[in-house]
């Protein structure tokens, strides 16, 4: 093994994320002097089955940094940085828990990403080629969260994300130009209706106007699409994150000033999809209700019902969803499971079963644009990385624009 590929040191650092919270950055350095980093994102709305991040009582991540410096560093020393599978599985074995709670999922995923990026740099190739090989690649369709509710905003909306989906374009750059136009139009509409103060941004860069009902938000976004002249090219989507407004004691969903039973929620979503051009619906029910997901998907065959909290990027739960035909889409989040290798295993299982894939960010992000390369390398159907605003979101979009220009990859089609 050449010195350029032999891991010399792994070290951790506390950094800040887009919400002003601390998170972990891992650096991997080879004996030959090649060095790169990986960051651990963090979610505000989390599935109960997600891998556990190590966080100190004061909100810091010093314990996670210690995991890197005093455990992972010595375990990975002298290994070949290109051996991603071996390295990830060694960290899993070293952790020894079902939920990554000993070393911390944040320690592990930041290191796992850093390993992949350092390996690509040592080989002198693009990260997406390192992940997916030198085959033909496509640019994923973005799901842009331009209006925030739920735990991502300070308004009374229960639905967490209102998305625009630019499907009717031949290039990613044209799709982004249209999306930014709609985003600006939406901000102008809100400024005129509520005042400029309400164009302030939520966690993922979307606006958070003082709304309380789902239809009010959909009307605003759809009006922005039509006023921008893109009603034939852009569809709508929603991430309900419904576990956050599900009352388990009463078995009802508290939304839009009402209490709805799970069956009434099926009718609620069905009516919305009849009124608006909705292509995508994420986490419409509580994260344990595989059956209701399945029933809704059967009634809305043209809508991509997608599981996030339902699966938490874990093969065990995806297998159950496949068996029950719960969804036709899956969210793929690296930090939910804790390593790149496990993420790829999950992605492959979804793809093998003709399930649409969505490589996704978290609400607490950094400027690291690794998921853009990951989405291209895997030929993911979609990428979800927030509004076209704020550096931690635009870094992903700008990387995709860069890849498209440099390599002339085609824009994905549904």
UniProtKB/TrEMBL annotation:
The family annotation for this protein states: Belongs to the enolase family.
The broad enzyme category this protein falls into is lyase
Positions of the Enolase C-terminal TIM barrel domain: 136-412
Species this protein is from:
Acidianus brierleyi
Q: What is this protein called?
A: Enolase
List ligand-binding residues for substrate: 152, 161, 282, 308, 360-363, 384
Stored SMART domains: Enolase_C (SM01192), Enolase_N (SM01193)
Q: Which UniProt keywords apply?
A: Cytoplasm, Glycolysis, Lyase, Magnesium, Metal-binding, Pyruvate, Secreted
């Amino acid at each position: 093994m050449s010195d350029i590929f032999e891991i010399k040191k792994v070290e951790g650092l506390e950094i800040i994320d887009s919400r002003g919270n601390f998170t972990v950055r891992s650096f991997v350095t080879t004996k030959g002097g090649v060095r790169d980093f990986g960051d651990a994102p963090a979610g505000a709305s989390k599935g109960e089955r997600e891998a556990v991040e190590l966080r100190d009582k004061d909100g810091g991540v010093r314990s996670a940094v210690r995991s890197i410096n005093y455990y992972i560093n010595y375990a990975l020393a002298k290994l070949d940085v290109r051996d991603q599978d071996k390295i990830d599985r060694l960290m899993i074995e070293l952790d020894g828990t079902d939920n990554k709670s000993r070393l911390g999922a944040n320690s592990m995923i930041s290191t796992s990403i850093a390993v992949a990026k350092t390996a690509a740099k040592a080989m002198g190739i693009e990260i997406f080629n390192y992940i997916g090989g030198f085959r033909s690649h496509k640019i994923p369709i973005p799901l842009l969260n331009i209006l925030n509710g739920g735990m991502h905003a300070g308004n009374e909306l229960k639905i967490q994300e209102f998305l625009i989906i630019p499907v009717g374009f031949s290039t990613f750059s044209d799709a982004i130009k249209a999306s930014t136009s709609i985003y600006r139009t939406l901000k102008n509409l809100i400024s005129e209706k509520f005042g400029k103060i309400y164009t302030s941004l939520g966690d993922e860069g979307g606006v958070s106007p003082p709304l309380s009902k789902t239809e009010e938000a959909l009307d605003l976004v759809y009006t922005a699409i039509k006023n921008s002249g893109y009603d034939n090219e852009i569809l709508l989507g929603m991430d309900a994150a419904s576990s956050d407004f599900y009352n388990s004691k009463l078995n009802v969903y508290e939304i839009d000033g009402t209490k709805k039973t799970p069956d009434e929620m099926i009718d609620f979503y069905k009516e919305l999809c009849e009124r608006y051009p909705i292509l995508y619906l994420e986490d419409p029910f509580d994260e344990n209700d595989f059956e209701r997901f399945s029933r809704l998907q059967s009634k809305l065959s043209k809508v991509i019902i997608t599981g996030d909290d339902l699966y938490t990027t874990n093969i065990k739960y995806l297998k159950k969803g496949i068996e029950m035909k719960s969804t036709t889409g899956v969210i793929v989040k690296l930090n939910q499971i804790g390593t790149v290798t496990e993420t790829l295993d999950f992605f492959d299982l979804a793809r093998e079963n003709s399930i649409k894939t969505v490589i996704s960010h978290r609400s607490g992000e950094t400027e690291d644009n690794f998921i853009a390369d990951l989405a291209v390398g895997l030929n993911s159907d979609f990428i979800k990385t927030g509004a076209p605003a704020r550096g931690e979101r635009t870094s992903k979009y700008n990387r995709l624009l860069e890849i498209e220009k440099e390599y002339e990859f085609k824009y994905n089609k549904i």
